[in-house]
Amino acid sequence: MVVLHDQKISKGFFWDHGIAVQSILLGATEKGLGGCQFNAIDRVALAQELNLPDHLEIVTVIALGKPNEVVVIEQLGDSGDIKYWRDEQGIHHVPKRGLNDLIFN
Questions:
Q1: Tens digit of pLDDT for each residue in 52-61?
Q2: Residues 6+ apart with CB under 8 A from 50
Q3: d(CA 93, CA 90)
Q4: Would you identify the CATH topology of the domain 1-68?
């Protein structure tokens, strides 16, 4: 899925695409799909391949599909190591910071 900015509608945008991408990915997860957003893309080559007119700017790309692995989100350990890892059963472990670590009060 290619997310586009139509410059005929507005010359700039701030967070609209992020909200849209988050909603798409959350909806995909609810339907049992996996997804990933890509920003490291060759926008010029992709625009040419899609034959996009000049007023449509590629913002980001979303890949959607059926997950072929089990991913477990877990609390970040005391070491603070955020490196992903796989266990002996091939389960993909993804350490994440908790809300208390992210929210400043």
A1: 999 999 999 9
A2: 2
A3: 9
A4: NADH Oxidase (3.40.109)
